[in-house]
Design brief:
This protein is an alpha/beta fold. The strands form four sheets. The protein has a seven-stranded mixed beta sheet, sandwiched between helices. The protein has a four-stranded antiparallel beta sheet with strand order 11-12-15-14, with helices on one face. The chain has a two-stranded parallel ribbon with strand order 1-13. The chain has helices spanning about 15, 45-60, 70-90, 105-120, 135-145, 165-170, 190-200, 220-225, 250-255, 290-305, 305-325, 355-365, 380-385, 400-420; strands at about 35, 95-100, 125-130, 150-155, 175-180, 205-210, 230, 245, 265-270, 275, 330-335, 345-350, 370, 370-375, 390-395. The chain binds pyridoxal-5'-phosphate (PLP). Pyridoxal-5'-phosphate binds near residues 102, 134, 209, 232 and 376.
Length: about 425
């Protein structure tokens, strides 16, 4: 059983939990919620909810449009959020931060804009077997449009990238390497610095899918020297509907706009248009104004807690989850040991029975919310010869007690299943 939660990590989940109204919710059947589905989406603290309400009540107008006072106020708040994202990523300038609708939209923007302009027949795009569908399908679509070839770095039985294969597959034909920083199924933290350095030596650009890393681990786009980075606000306590694309300035400046419409132009005639400067060039139409402001509030909250403390707390929880789930014996955790991964623990029972969906349903009766299925990573599941896994994923408000409850509930799942069969 757990001791007092994570005193040594410098983070106080009981205090933090008080900021998240939904975490004190009592579910059907009178059980409290143990929310362990953070890789899908996280919960929001009161401070973020208040920022959203306050914006609608006090500061709401369209941005970069009005001459009036209210629009100026909203624009200031929106741009302050961009600056907060810049600081989070240590990006050189706020113009290199593009607000999108999420990681998926950010990756599609690069595939359509940079991809269509820079990738041709016979060029190669190097992905990995552990990518989320959001970092597979846009490149497959690009290949279908252009005749490019998509290759994939295999994943080892331990659940890490086969780096010798990466070295073999990378060549002067590779135009782009697109790779996730953290696997949303295995939790594996990939060697992004090494991948970027090697890709650049081969003359390729690199897009990093940061959907599962930016909320949990320190990100420094200048230290990485990355070309593009994509992530979503809703996986880091921000509202849904807002995401970010960071890009290297020369690349963003040379890329054609993706969506056309209001805001992204400097001038329009009936015969043509001249695009606006960064970042407006890639923010056509009314952007996710309040969501972006809410994301700024989420970043303030994260900053207040301290990202390093969050990382340490999650490492503690991940180690603990491996330990207590490992004691169940007939349960297999996919992916590397806890010290090589982020806050994601996906598992199957031996023989894949009970099925992940049954596990999730039975856990739900105890108030334990986990994800079951392929987690938008079908090729990775195929590689591990399972069609579904159960996934518990943690964030700053989770506790060892919740992991104890997960383990106890899994024991019950096993007993129920044994009785049934
Ligand atoms: N990439 C990874 C690794 C993810 O885990 C996810 C979502 O789960 C995405 C991309 C897509 O994020 P969104 O659905 O917010 O666009």
């Amino acid at each position: 059983m757990s001791e007092a939660p994570c005193r040594h990590t410098g983070l106080e989940p009981p205090t933090i939990r008080g900021d998240f109204p939904i975490l004190s919710k009592v579910l059907h059947g009178g059980v409290p919620l143990a929310y362990l589905d953070n890789a899908a989406t996280t919960q929001r603290p009161r401070q973020v909810i208040q920022a959203i309400v306050e914006t609608y009540e006090q500061h709401y107008a369209n941005v970069h449009r009005g001459i009036h006072w209210l629009s100026d106020q909203t624009t200031d708040l929106y741009e302050q959020s961009r600056e907060k994202v810049r600081a989070l990523l240590n990006a050189p300038a706020p113009e290199q931060i593009i607000f999108t609708h999420g990681a998926t939209a950010s990756i599609n923007l690069v595939a359509r804009s940079w991809g269509d302009a820079n990738v041709g027949r016979g060029d190669e795009i190097l992905l990995t077997e552990m990518e989320h569908h959001s970092n597979l399908v846009p490149w497959r679509q690009l290949a279908e449009r252009t005749g490019a070839i998509v290759r994939h770095v295999p994943v080892t039985d331990r659940g890490v990238l086969e780096m010798e294969a990466f070295d073999r597959l990378l060549s002067d034909r590779t135009r782009l390497v697109a790779v996730t920083a953290v696997s949303n199924v295995l939790g594996t933290i990939n060697p992004i610095g090494e991948i970027i350095a090697k890709a650049h030596r081969a003359g390729a650009c690199v897009l990093v899918d940061g959907a599962q890393s930016v909320p949990h681990l320190k990100t420094d786009v200048q230290a990485w020297n990355v070309d593009f980075l994509a992530f979503s606000g809703h996986k880091m306590m921000g509202p849904s509907g807002v995401g970010v694309l960071y890009g290297r300035r020369e690349l963003l400046e040379s890329m054609p706009p993706f969506l056309g419409g209001g805001s992204m132009i400097r001038r329009v005639t009936l015969d043509g248009f001249e695009p606006a400067d960064l970042p407006a060039k890639f923010e056509a139409g009314t952007p996710p104004i309040v969501s972006a402001i809410g994301l700024g509030a989420a970043l303030d909250y994260l900053d207040g807690v301290g990202l390093d403390a969050v990382t340490r707390h999650e490492q503690d929880l991940t180690r603990y989850a491996h330990e207590v789930l490992g004691e169940l014996g007939d349960l297999r955790i996919l992916g590397p040991p806890p010290e090589e991964k982020s806050a994601i623990v996906s598992f199957v029972f031996d023989g894949n029975r009970p099925h992940a969906h049954d596990i999730a349903q039975l856990l739900d009766r105890q108030g334990v919310a986990i994800r079951a299925g392929h987690h938008c990573a079908m090729p990775l599941h195929k590689r591990f010869r399972v069609n579904a896994t159960a996934r518990a994923s943690f964030y700053l408000y989770n506790t060892r007690e919740e992991i104890d409850l997960l383990a106890r509930s899994l024991q019950q799942v096993r007993q129920v299943f044994r009785r049934r069969t």
